[in-house]
Amino acid sequence: MAAAEFDVRVGAYGRLLHALRIIYRASPEGGELRNETGGSTDQAAWFPLEGISTLERTGLVDAGLRLLAAAPPLTPPITRYARPAGRTPHL
């Protein structure tokens, strides 16, 4: 997790809306983007970082970009663990 923020504002019908936003730092590992029909995302697409400033976006995108600029590079994830010879895992 890179950051979390919360906000309380007046929503529909004068009710308080409590929002929790969590920003994760991740790298794509494969697969294909797809639009969510009837979901929360109407169009999925990759954009070059230098072109994001020209897009209509939420403040959360700008917060993520600030975090990215200040963060060290990602290291590759550890996908396998070596087990010393002759030892069995404890179950």
Question: Would you give an account of this structure?
Answer:
By secondary structure, the protein is an alpha+beta fold. It is globular, with a radius of gyration of 20 Å. Strand 1 and strand 2 (16-23) form a beta hairpin. It has one helix at 59-70, and strands spanning 3-10, 16-23. The protein contains one helix and two strands. The protein has a two-stranded antiparallel ribbon. The longest helix is centred in the C-terminal third of the chain and has 12 residues, at 59-70. The two termini are 29 Å apart.
Mean pLDDT: 78
Shape label: globular
- Largest sheet geometry: 2 strands, antiparallel
Report strand order across the widest sheet: 1-2
What percentage of the residues does DSSP assign to strands (E)?
Answer: 15-25%
The secondary-structure class comes to alpha+beta
Listing every helix as H and every strand as E from the N terminus to the C terminus, the arrangement reads EEH
Q: Which bin fits the share of residues in helices? A: 10-25%
Spans of at least 5 consecutive residues with low confidence: none
Radius of gyration, in angstroms, nearest whole number: 20 Å
Number of strands: 2
